[in-house]
User: Which sequence fits this backbone?
């Protein structure tokens, strides 16, 4: 029996949102998955198959439900999703930003639509000045987000954000999902490099033909 | 006794140039280290301490000497160093670009002066259209470049470039230095992401207090 955990609202019902939602619900979190189309069969199927306390609703429903909110939308849809959810629903909450500003306008593999002097993480924090935004999960595949241990070893999660307490809360949530202590690279402006890393990661995955590739940072 | 290897010209006599120079000379390569100040004590000391066939000279001397050229200059000094060396000295040669376009104008940790729609690797290839530029070594510390195996495992080297033969040659040189087969992410435009990764790597190193941190990409 898992102990009671926080209420989590997930914005975005693609593979990332569904994987994190199932994983967190299985660990005792009370999860609402928010979608533009909550009635879609794929989402209703997820609702039936997930173990634990799970519900589905609109972006606004999920944002109101969660004490912790997780952004799992497509990069280019993220700011609009926040507006649809109602920015007031984010105030004073931990907001985990798992998005990537990938630019597919020139095909695969993608570029970034933010350059290296801004990031989607910073844009989200500017849009939600009262929220405590922590960049997390954007550097790994959705299949790696829950129970990440691989045969070759344990990958590392890298996070950043402006609020120390929020980052400690994220470390606790990561531990529940099976991760080691994350590497915290500082303020939310670090998202520039976590997001740029994802463009590299996509190229590694394509080259290796393996979407589960995940970095471990060797230290000795 | 090592077998005869290619002549290598290294542009840049900082830690990266000296580490690669010593490492390659010890493996049988005939190395000339090129510098703006070849008479400087630090460089003459390196010359005395290095094992194997080593010499020092100007950028132009080193560029003329090498069948393989390695760019180890500061990012912002790279294009000028190439001009000083004489662009004709690069024609038809393998040019390994180990540089990073780090922008320290706002202090530490650095940004990039190229954004994500260009890279220093591409700039070098444009400046040297007849050379075969391969981005390599820029993602690890100079102490990791030679005999990279760590207690925790073997890091991965990632390379990119437009010429397949040149990349195979780099893979051979990496093998001589103790690396596994590198991960080749495609054309030289991949340098955008290898260079952006370095900005992340600097932040990881600062956070962990460990400049030897190096990524291994777990695949299973």
Assistant:
């Amino acid at each position: 029996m898992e102990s009671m955990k926080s209420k989590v609202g997930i914005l975005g019902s693609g593979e990332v949102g569904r994987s994190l939602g199932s994983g967190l619900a299985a660990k005792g979190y009370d999860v609402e998955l928010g979608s533009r189309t909550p009635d879609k069969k794929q989402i209703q199927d997820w609702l039936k198959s997930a173990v634990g306390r799970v519900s589905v609703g609109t972006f606004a429903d999920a944002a109101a439900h969660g004490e912790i909110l997780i952004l799992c939308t497509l990069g280019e849809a993220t700011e609009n999703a926040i507006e649809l959810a109602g920015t007031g629903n984010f105030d004073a909450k931990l907001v985990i930003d798992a998005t990537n500003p990938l630019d597919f306008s020139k095909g695969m593999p993608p570029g970034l639509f933010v350059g290296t002097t801004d990031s989607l993480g910073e844009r989200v924090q500017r849009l939600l000045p009262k929220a405590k935004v922590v960049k997390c999960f954007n550097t790994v595949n959705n299949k790696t987000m829950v129970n990440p241990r691989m045969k070759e070893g344990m990958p590392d999660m890298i996070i950043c954000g402006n609020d120390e307490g929020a980052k400690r809360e994220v470390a606790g949530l990561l531990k529940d999902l099976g991760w080691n202590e994350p590497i915290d690279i500082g303020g939310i402006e670090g998202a520039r490099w976590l997001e740029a890393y994802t463009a590299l990661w996509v190229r590694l995955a394509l080259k290796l033909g393996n979407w589960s590739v995940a970095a471990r940072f060797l230290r000795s």
In short: The CA atoms of residues 160 and 186 of chain B lie 5 Å apart.
